[in-house]
Amino acid sequence: MNTNGASTLTTPRAIQKSFLAYEQNEGVGARVRRSIGTPKLRNFTPFLMLDHFNSPDGSGKFPDHPHRGQETITYVLDGAIDHEDFTGSKGRIEAGDLQFMTAGRGIMHAEMPVDGMHCQGMQLWVDLPKELKSTEPRYRDLRGSEIPIATSPDGKTTVKVISGNSLGVESLKDLAYTPVWLLDVTIQPGGSLSQALPQNWNAFAYTLGGVTTFSNGEASETVVPYHNVVFAQAGDGVNASVEEGAEEASRFILVAGQPLDQQVVQYGPFVTNSREEVMQALHDFQGSKNGFERGLNWQSEIAKGHF
């Protein structure tokens, strides 16, 4: 056993690669660090895109826009986001909250940071299995107060168990159609975590703060913030630690997902399995049909008056 009480992994995963997510403009006024969905890491099944967004004073608006064929997971770290779609669903998620949105056969929605508030968070796009591409759209919110927190016996490691299992604590419910584990990890100086992950799932960590050392016993790499750390598929989990003399705790998001054996053809917000299907998605959206009927002349209330 190690100091945090977790069993030592038999075969810790090696780091396949790690790279800095450079900041860029996205939406209206948003500053985004995109790592998945770039030439460095494209279509890392089942993951399509990962954005770390940072919007000062309510900027970073994403007015009315469509989706088809994927799920989005939005995790608010600071501030608050209002959302609204053409089904009539609307609401607000605040710091610590998550929203899981299934676009399915089609949805139009808007996402708007609350005016006057600094907003920071993560948005992960997850592919849908081809048999669920035409499912009806749906939302599931997860409030920060609902998320179970696991703590190591020495108190130096805490994990928000959003989805999956850590340190003997299980998440409350499955929130996405495609099986995904999502863990928000904080390690104090001198702490460590040996985190088991499902076999043969793809996995990565996105570093948010401090300095984290990932090791598989043979090699280690020390990683600073805003890097995506991609782990080899072979192995049964991930080892992470922070040096005893470190100036601050480290924080990272650890994500694992079940790979999908299917072709990915993506055109902006439309994710299909063939070129013909992505062309059909464009025609359906432009013609307000086959899932986009409610988009005809629809305008969100939350985006009005901003442009």
From TrEMBL:
Protein name as catalogued: Pirin
Alphabetic keyword roster: Iron, Metal-binding
GO molecular function: metal ion binding
InterPro entries named among the record's database cross-references: Pirin (IPR012093), Pirin_C_dom (IPR008778), Pirin_N_dom (IPR003829), RmlC-like_jellyroll (IPR014710), RmlC_Cupin_sf (IPR011051)
UniProt family annotation: Belongs to the pirin family.
Name of one Pfam family that matches: Pirin
Domain Pirin N-terminal: 30-126
CDD domains: cupin_pirin_C, cupin_pirin_N
Species this chain originates from: Cyphellophora attinorum
Limits of the Pirin C-terminal domain: 183-290
Residues bound to Fe cation: 65, 67, 109, 111
